[in-house]
User: Fold these one by one.
Assistant:
Number 1:
Amino acid sequence: MSDLFEPYTLRSLTIPNRVWMAPMCQYSADTTGPDTGAPNDWHFAHLAARASGGTGLILVEATAVSPEGRISPADLGIWNDTQVAAFRRITDFITSQGSIPGIQIAHAGRKASTDLPWQGGAPLGPGAGGWQTLAPSAVPFAETDPLPAELTVDEIQEIVGQFAAAARRAREAGFQVVEVHGAHGYLIGEFLSPHSNHRTDAYGGSFENRARFALEVVDAVRAEWPEDLPVFFRVSATDWLDEGGWTADDTVRLADELLAHGVDLLDVSSGGNAPRVRIPAGPGYQVPFAARVKAETRLPVAAVGLITEPEQAEKIVTNGEADAVLLGRELLRDPSWARRAARELGGTVFVPQQYHRS
Ligand SMILES: Cc1cc2nc3c(=O)[nH]c(=O)nc-3n(C[C@H](O)[C@H](O)[C@H](O)COP(=O)(O)O)c2cc1C
């Protein structure tokens, strides 16, 4: 028996195993015309392969709640009905493979409006297909980046509404899990961290004030999302700054708040809000952050980051460090990782009938 391949139930949703696909931007949507931001054949093939590979839950990449919320012009979006219809084809297929379709909804804040990573990823000015970026404070990510515009309270409320609308559309598109992207120095993470949030109003200063936007988004998403389906939140457990940043203690405190606001699982990542920090990356390097939330709160957690080996993943779940693991790059290398791991660990996974002879 394998703990990794035990089903996991949140609210009334049962996820068939604890091997989940981490959200990964593909930067492959149309950038102009009516299909801007809609998933296409690339997204279908990419997500379908991991679903038929036995992955229990597929979290679709950071999908923007508004055009300004995209990291690049080629990001996926979920702000119109054309996008909803295109996602429907993907969620139907994921479901047909016994997997659960989930989506990460996001606003990139001051890290929006950049070129594709394989074209260098530099900030794109308005003349080059980019747009004015938005942030809690007019402080750029890197000193050389264009200045983001400081959001007014009305604009903050508008973005809360965009997250709510995105959640409603995600449900219409057939998703069964919605994840709010609060990590990696994007808009919600920018509000959380004193490193990027220098506001002096109700959205800045104290922990409560910096967490206000995140919790308003969660409340708005929860209000749109069915009672019987789970909401996830991805956090960066630390900015990896020696001082003046978001810390693991803050993460534990936030986890309690998120639980009280109806979040069902914390997806524990790290970093992304400050350039040039030293990150001690190595196998499972973020697992201790997840394990701490698991030990000190009642909020379920998923661990992510350099989890690549079946035995390693199994131990994380068996030891109670996390309720599930998310795999990113290893699933890019091997879409059938879950099936391979199940064979190694003695678990069972869905195998498409077309592949039974394998
Ligand atoms: C190509 C690529 C795209 C990514 N896009 C996202 C994203 O859209 N949202 C997010 O929260 N993390 C994103 N990440 C981070 C992954 O979700 C994951 O946390 C990270 O890759 C560490 O896990 P791994 O070591 O298993 O790859 C991305 C990572 C990669 C490699």
Note: The pocket of flavin mononucleotide is lined by residues 22-25, 61-62, 104, 181, 183-184, 234, 269, 304-307, 327-330 (CB under 6 Å).
Number 2:
Amino acid sequence: MTTLDLAFARSQFPAFAEPSLAGQAFFENAGGSYACRQVIDRLGEYYRRLKVQPYYAYPASQEAGEWMDASHVRLAEYLNVGVDEVHFGPSTSQNSYVLAQALRKLLKPGDEVIVTNQDHEANNGVWRRLATDGAVLRQWAVDPDSGMLDPGALDGLINERTRVLAFSQCSNIVAHINPVAAITAKARAAGVITMVDSVAYAPHGLPDVTALGADILLFSLYKTFGPHQGAMVVRQALLERLGNEAHYFNGAYTRKRLVPAGPDHAQIAAARGVAEYFDALDAHHGGGTAAGRPQRVRQLLREAELPLLARVLDYLSKRKDVRLLGPADASVRAATISFVPLKKTPADLVPALARHGIMAAAGHFYAVRLLEALGVDPARGALRLSFLHYTSAQDIDQLIAALDKVLG
Ligand SMILES: Cc1ncc(COP(=O)(O)O)c(C=O)c1O
């Protein structure tokens, strides 16, 4: 097992050297992570040197196009998919909206779509709206105490009319890691298209999409050390069945079909920086074969987060004045922890924590249906603490000391 060199990891993020952020511990990473140096440098250089229309035959334009292509290539490596299976769009919400328009054309009245009440609304409302065209909706509901989904319940939901199943790798509130590969296997056996929201999981380790078996997988680069873009993988076999959602004359370009907004050239070019950060992390920790790199990086991130996650879960599950949402076992969840304070309001805790140098947030985080299912008033919401591999043990000390003070 390789232990993360935290000083090295933090040295790759300019935010940790920023005087205005000194002394403040960042626990709102599920809202948006810090950006790594590689991304910031590429974005700056692109704007300085390559801010021209890409893919024409003059040097700056050619290079701009090469930078964009490189982002497809490098992220495809980490996601273990084909280069043309990676698509960039303005955000995950926008990407799922476009995907819903594309999938709508594959459905016939009476076809069934399964959604959960665990997901962020981005992987939820767009599919529910398909019912207006005659699709039948089935809800895969969470356990109202734990917020967890039971894969066994799918057997009673999937039938010969089921066409689509949308769920998350993990929720942005309860953070239980769903057994994605087992779920997609069940769906595939029934000919069901799977749509996996990995937004809340990807920052903890870019998923191997082939191993997960998802037809579509979505995540947001701005929560994964990168620029403000949504990334989506659409597997080739499905892509060929989907129509063109972009200008009619662009249908022949697979990368354009699902991006009617038009590409944000600079941000797509800078997305390569996320892979370059992971490369640097891997090389610093001894490296190895290129083929083994994504898995080594995934493991490095996970092992750095696990002990910190266990500490916070342990602390919160012992307090009598909070309701922890989701499981208390670190091994089955990602480093996103939400709780409902029983004596204070979540909204009041945010400025109170800020006075102790803790950056955190409260609300429903667009998972309104999940909070309702858990019996939590979405208007009050929950307090969420989310962290990543670059979080230090000192950050956790500071957090726990602050929670001791603000919870009373
Ligand atoms: C789990 C999850 N899915 C989807 C989204 C939507 O992502 P975007 O902001 O890129 O539309 C978010 C954003 O917070 C999220 O947390």
Note: The chain has two domains: 6-35+294-407, 42-275.
